[in-house]
Amino acid sequence: MTTIFEALRESHEIQRDLAEKLLQTSGDTAERRELFKQLKNELFAHETAEDRYFYIPLMMTDSGLNITRHALAEHHEMDEMIEELTATEFSNPGWIAIAKRLSEKVHHHLKEEEHGFFQQAGKILGEEQKTALAVQYKNEYQRYKDMKKDMLVQS
């Protein structure tokens, strides 16, 4: 049985990989556009599912409240950087500077989750809850990944 922590880590690896690759791109290229689209989708699907099936259950406890507040604030910061990148021309020399800030924030956030929050959450959530949340998270995550793809195809 997969736990919520293992399920979240799978997406974390994808995020790290995409963020690294994105920083290797330059100018308005098909590669930059594609990698940015993939990272944007990954972050969106992951954050949405993670908020619902990891952070909201933690928020129900006093000890989980501070972790949750901090993590959700970081999700919000990443969303703002994604919006900034979306509004900036791919060819703009400043684009990669924003992408670098986003990549640093993603790396910082994931490291904090994996080396701090997961340990704390492990003490808060029961064993059955850890596997039940993994199933719910994965379903939601997949739903958003698929949905975003459909939306992108239509536009």
From TrEMBL:
Residues 3-120 form the Hemerythrin-like domain. It comes from Acinetobacter schindleri NIPH 900. InterPro entries: Hemerythrin-like (IPR012312). PANTHER family: HHE DOMAIN PROTEIN (AFU_ORTHOLOGUE AFUA_4G00730). This is Hemerythrin-like domain-containing protein.
